[in-house]
Amino acid sequence: MASHEALRHLTIGQYIPADSPIHRLDPRAKLLAAGGLIIAGVVASKYSNVLFLALLVAVLVKVAGLRLRSALANLVPVMPVLLVMALLQILFYGGASRSAGPNRLLVEWGLLHISAESVRVIVVTWARFVALFLLITLLTSTTTASALTRGLEGLLRPLDRLHLPGHEIALVGAIALRFLPILGEQLEAILQAQASRGVSESRSRWHLLANARRMAQVIVPLFVDAYHRAEELILAMQARCYHGGKGRTYLIPFRSRPADYVAVILSISLAVLAGVLQYSTLP
Amino acid sequence: MSEEIVSVQGLDHTYLAGTPLATAALRGAELCVRRGEVAALVGPSGAGKSTLAHFLNGLLRPAARRQVVVFGQDTAEPSCDLVALRRRVGLVFQYPHQQLFERYVGDDVAYGPRQLGLAGEELRERVRWAMEIVGLDFESFVDRHTFSLSGGEMRRAALAGVLAMRPELLILDESTVGLDPRGRREVHALLRRLRREEGLTILLVSNDMDEVAELADQVTVLYAGQTVLAGEVHEVLAQGELLRRYGLSSPTAVEIIHELRRKGLAVTSGAITPYEAEEAIWQAMKP
Amino acid sequence: MKPYDRAIRRVVIAGLLLAITLLLTFTNVAFIPVPTPAGSATIGHIPAIIGGILEGPLVGLIVGFGFGFGCFMNPLVTAVTNDPLVIWLPRLFIGVTAGWTFALLRRANRRVLAAMLVLLTLLVLYYSYQVGGKILWLGILIAFLAGLGSLALYNWARGEETIVIALAIAGAVGSLTNTVLVLSAAVWRKVAGIGPEVALGIGLTQGIPEAIVSAIVAVAVVSALRQIGKRRGARL
User: Fold this and answer.
1) What is the DSSP letter of C203?
2) Residue A132 and residue A87 share a domain
3) DSSP state of C205
4) Number of B:C CB contacts under 8 A?
């Protein structure tokens, strides 16, 4: 695959249209639910709650009608990193002792000391990583990017009343999403045009300055193009007397349905449950 | 019969292969270009024309051997020298602002030759030649900001940048879209001149049938990634029905003559350019 | 300029810089080869730096936040750790420090800049003296490299406008903010066996090339956007 084709392979999840209960949820509800579960996931560090979360997410993926296998397939490029991390943790998680207790030594083989503690850390890290990854994939597969930004803006609405720029922040995200594919095409075109005129492909790591200069040759036109588009958009917004979020209404307004409230309450409760497990006496 | 410098046979290509969004862009496409001629590659949007063009200078490489052979080199071979290939095959992209990336016009035109190792006075002369031949006065344009040029000037600058590499095959990917009639005529004159004076072989990727009728010697029609028609320009462009089926219009001259015949005037068909049509109509109207 | 116009400008430019950030973070273009063990340096933080320099610390903050978000969503980064305090929080400050540095230095006295360079060199030499106390050859090596580096920098800076120097320093500072804060957070949160020494090692080997790259790219981009630079024409 030529370097300029890399652009087509964005690593973030693709929206997969379907008609599942999760697809139908209001994006604000999904953001809140996902947010709660992500917080729970980040805090989790014991077997019980990590496995609980992983199972929960797997169930949700099924409910959304997604195929578990293809979602996990996206993890393949990350495998090497995960393996290296696991290796590092086995080797360097210090403090193994021969007595019983959480840090007891399990295996000793030459320089290798594997303690129960390091096993726990590895398993927990893997499970948490997979759970979080699936959760984010779930969110991006069941919600279009524009729905996500609208959901974000909806959630930030209350900030307007506090005279904080909630609407503007959401707009930044919307603009970014809008221009992402356009700039992507532009970048690809720049790479192709430069390649067509004979730039050599050697990427040796020792030519720091040369590589930096070549990177600049690609980046600078991209920034210039982005700035031109920005100036046009600014002009367009001014011409339409855009004055911010106050009093703006939508063509298709949000409608909260009972299912949305249920989803949020349910996931927050489950997240709290996971948190409780964290501080319980379970392993 | 002059040398075949491009030979594409049975070319397949899939976009985003291996992902759920994979689509077949080319399915067994074929193309043949001889030295010194002007070939045209036509087809409706999405037929795969640009994709095919990208194979000809090594931006894309075929998955199997013997599918794309340019200047005697099979681009699927790992040993194929892409840098040398791109010196001989110049590709001009559709939108000039995608092609220009240096701040100053002179630098952008000089980019290609610089990569080839030219420097100093030789480089300057090459840039001067390339700019003058596309109609950009060297002294007044060399230090201009590329992004301050008008659309037509940008197009010329992009073309100059490619010509500065002295390619043997020039591929123009929909390069006259959006030009006003005078601009288009100037580009046509330039292409004819290049062919005459520099012996350049030209491949036009275009949807503009009038332009193809004016310039091309032979035409290849691409539809849904497959080559469906190929042959001498008069043969191909006269087949109005077939072209319509493939989402293409006929040259204006052909349509006019078709209408006249339908209305009862005994005009011989076969004319594809306004000039030829004028002749034919004149003949038909003589008492 | 009407009051809301400034907000529009900031929102739009932040949005576009964020788009570039996401583009760089999620494709291979964001990595360029460097002579370090990791093999490649990231440039995803550069739009945040540019935002901070050109439009002020607020835009730098927003784009930095977006960069953090992009890192958070990127499996390649979260495989190491998904602690948002390590991945996300430090990124906020990239654009802020770059912006402040640039604002501070753009009209600086050249003598001040020279003094800063001398001070920096002395600091590094002192550090190398400390290291040399324990590992002699390493200390000498660092001192040697520092001397070379300083001479090279001074030579370069002599021929450049102040604003270009300010840009380069701002770019480097932004990148170093990224390196220092992320590594500090990693040490603080006890990520995967990264102790203070390891962090320092990574910081030096990865952070310095990244800072150099950031300086070069920052200068290139801002000079193109603001028509800075002595050259007024093609170099032919």
Assistant:
1) I
2) yes
3) I
4) 24
Maximum Cα–Cα distance across chain B: 67
For residue B287, the enclosing domain spans 251-287
For A144, A147, A150, A249, C198, the CA distances from A252, given in Å and listed in that order, are 15, 11, 11, 9, 53
Shared domain for A193 and A82, answered yes or no, is: no
How far apart are the C-alpha atoms of B185 and C152, rounded to whole Å? 54
- Span between the terminal Cα atoms of chain B, in Å: 42
Output the pTM of the full model: 0.82
Contact B276/C at CB under 8 A:
no
Name the residue among A222, A216, B106 with its Cα closest to residue C21.
A222
Backbone angles phi and psi of A44, in degrees to 5: -65, 135
Q: Which of C16, C34, C35 sits opposite A175 (nearest CB)?
A: C16
- Same domain? For A45 and A127 the reply is yes
Regarding whether B262 and B144 lie in a shared domain, the answer is no
**Residue A196 belongs to some domain of the structure:** yes
Is B282 found in the same domain as B166? Answer: no
Domain match, B131 and B262 both: no
C27 contacts A10? CB cut-off 8 A: yes
Per-residue pLDDT 10s for chain A (283 aa) are: 344 444 445 545 567 777 777 787 888 888 888 888 888 777 777 777 777 888 888 888 888 777 777 767 767 766 777 777 777 666 665 544 444 555 556 666 665 666 667 777 777 777 887 888 888 878 878 888 778 878 887 887 777 777 777 778 888 888 998 898 889 888 888 888 888 887 665 556 566 677 777 778 888 889 988 998 999 999 998 888 777 766 666 676 777 778 788 888 887 888 787 777 777 766 6
Q: Could you list the residue range(s) of the whole structural domain that residue A28 is in?
A: 24-143+253-283
Residue A158 belongs to some domain of the structure: no
What is the 3-state secondary structure of A181-234?
A: HHHHHHHHHHHHHHHHCCCCCCCCCCCHHHHHHHHHHHHHHHHHHHHHHHHHHH
How far is residue A17 from each of residues A22, A31, A245, B21, C155, measured CA to CA in Å? 11, 18, 30, 13, 59
Nearest partner of C175 among C27, C13, C32, judged by Cα: C32
Residues of B in contact with C225 (CB under 8 A): none
Same domain, A199 and A223: yes
Q: Number of folded domains in chain B? A: 2
Q: Indicate whether A79 and A127 sit together in one domain.
A: yes
Chains that touch C (3 or more CB pairs under 8 A): A, B
